[in-house]
Structure to design on (261 residues):
């Protein structure tokens, strides 16, 4: 794992450096049209979009029981493909940050930064925090209003689980991809109950939340938010450039391949 983390760090830095070098030296070394919508630039954009969208395959893989043993390998591939997508997106953009598509590029940069942080830095810091101040099971059973509420949520989870996955034990149960595919409404209900339970546990005085830094608590949420922002922005960019080329050009020459003006 350590060598993989070092490899990811150097690959991420190297990919960005190579992409920036292409932006800086490209006009002097290449004779073809290097604008984002020109043939080469457009294909760079297509490759970047495919690479970034492929990273979303990690979502079902992450929750697949059948692929549990290979999860570190798939996470490693997920990170590398995302870095490749960002490098291609930088090359496609030609460093133009004054146009609306720049928001998609910035989201991709944020995805790489938060992803590399979560893969390389966060596990070390979280391991130290949990080692110092793990929440003992007895701490949640003190007869307080919050612990009674937690007990009630556990019972509701067990009732839902009896319909969602009867043989499973609530104490060890994890929602998997097949649960979402086969019983999406029950899976959603169980997820909501588990989220409420987690928030209540984190609010207990004995919880170790204070031992976990703000970055560790937020990086995954920011990563997910940026992922959805990237998808929405990418779809908007593709639709407008292909189907509303005249609007995007705003009186300029439409030099890229498009389906409708």
């Amino acid at each position: 794992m350590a060598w993989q983390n070092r490899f990811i760090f150097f690959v991420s830095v190297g990919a960005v450096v190579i992409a920036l070098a292409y932006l800086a030296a490209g006009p002097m070394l290449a004779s073809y049209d290097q604008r984002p919508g020109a043939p080469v630039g457009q294909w760079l954009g297509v490759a970047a979009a495919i690479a970034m969208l492929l990273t979303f395959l990690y979502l079902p893989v992450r929750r697949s029981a059948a692929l549990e043993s290979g999860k570190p390998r798939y996470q490693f591939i997920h990170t590398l493909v995302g870095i490749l997508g960002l490098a291609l997106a930088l090359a496609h953009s030609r460093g133009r940050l004054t146009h609306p598509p720049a928001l998609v590029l910035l989201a991709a940069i944020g995805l790489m930064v938060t992803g590399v942080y979560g893969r390389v830095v966060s596990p070390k810091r979280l391991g130290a925090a949990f080692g110092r101040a793990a929440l003992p099971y007895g701490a949640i059973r003190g007869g307080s209003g919050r612990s009674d509420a937690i007990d009630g949520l556990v019972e509701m989870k067990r009732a839902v689980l009896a319909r969602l996955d009867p043989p499973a034990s609530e104490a060890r149960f994890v929602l998997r991809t097949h649960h979402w595919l086969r019983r999406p409404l029950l899976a959603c209900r169980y997820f909501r109950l588990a989220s409420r339970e987690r928030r209540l546990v984190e609010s207990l005085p004995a919880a170790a939340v204070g031992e976990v830094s703000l970055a560790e608590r937020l990086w995954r949420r920011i990563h997910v938010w940026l992922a959805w922002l990237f998808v929405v922005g990418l779809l908007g960019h593709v639709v407008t450039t292909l189907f509303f080329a005249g609007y995007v050009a705003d009186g300029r020459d439409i030099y890229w391949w498009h389906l409708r003006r």
